[in-house]
Please model this.
Amino acid sequence: MRILKNTAGAAALASSILAAGFGVAEAQPTDLKTLAIARGIDVGLALSSSSGGAAVDTVVTRNFTGFVPENATKWGNISSAPGVYSWTGTDGMLDFAQKYGMKMRFHTFVWHQQSSYIANGHTNGVAQPPEANKYTRAEAFTHMRNHIGAVMGHIKGRNGGQMHLISEWDVVNEAAARDSGNDDSQNLYGGMRRSTGNSVNLDSGLSRWTGYTQGETNDFDYIDSAFAIAHRNDTTARLVYNDYDAESLGKKSNTVYNLMAKLKNRKIPVHVLGMQCHWYIGPSNTGSSGAWDPQQIVTNMNRIAALGLDISITELDIRFQNPSDSTKLYQQRQAYETIMSICLNQPRCKKFYVWGLRDGSSWINSRFPGYGNPLLFSGSGSTYTPKPAYYGLIASLQTTSVRAPGARGAVRFTPAGPAYDIRGRQMKSLPAGPSSLVRKTVPAKAAR
Ligand code: 9MR
Model:
């Protein structure tokens, strides 16, 4: 569903603003960062590299309070085989954070893409029949435990401990099915990404994790374990479940809501829902993918907040069909302004991250041919030109007064009371593998 229509009024306003020129009509705005700090919101971006050069450093550090590595800290970019690690990318990002006094979101541990040997199996790099490639359930959990431990341990151990540079961790990414077409509310985890047993095609919306850990028969307990392992490694870490197309109301957001409710109810340490927000304005070639609706987002955020979770906007971009023109740019500006004001009005929405710096290097250009222009800056070479969308964020931050500087809802890092497995059985301790010991059955309300 598209929500921002090209009304005559909007177009006229757009033209008048554009005719005046941004430098005149909206002269010399305060930088994004100054306003973000004043409003108590962390405004960040995805960085494709920690060494973009002086021009990048200047525009990034003038405008953003945080960043997230677009690819550098994904499993496959850190580790090519069990126990084999290359820390160059991670360290570069940590150095960037330290140098400029910025916080970093960590992205990401458990995902069905960019996961090197997890995708390939134990014959990593060697052609084998799929069945021979597969890890056992125990092996999969061991790899998860070792990888999360290695990464968090490396960051903690570096230069005397740099855990404080990581504002939050994407622990599980995109575990709900693409359109949750198999949503079934009677099912414990209806709507989740499944596995087709031996399939190695991870681009088909399937998750290898489900197959390796026999998720469908073990109620997707790999998710419990990922959060528990991360929590064990740092009990102060803010842990995130991150997904896309789950911002408005619908099957997928219901699946994600149900997942979050069940995790919270069972005392699994999860603190934040990451809403990716890969959206479009105008006609789309992707069906409902990227559709969004402001009122529905408000409602959805409210129900997530009511679970006691924080909300981070983690990967916002708003594409439109080429070529760019002033009307589309104005609609995009409105869209950015709208989502910022929604976030500012929701006390538990504390992070607002866009997925990249400049239009020309967005993932959208290759992923959605014919579409583009999704970010806050245009330009080329060493020029970074703020777009109308940028001024939309400025306007929203200037006019929304509801959020006190530094406002924060309380997040308890370690859940109070015992944890429960998906079947409602009390666990002796948080799960870290397939052999979590179950002590006794617990009251029905804990198992809801
Ligand atoms: O922007 C990332 C792109 O450079 C990678 O090629 C791609 C691989 O799937 O991942 C992109 O980032 C994704 C992010 O890690 C998770 N959410 C969706 C993002 C866009 O695909």
About this structure: The domain at 10-401 is CATH 3.20.20.80 (TIM Barrel).
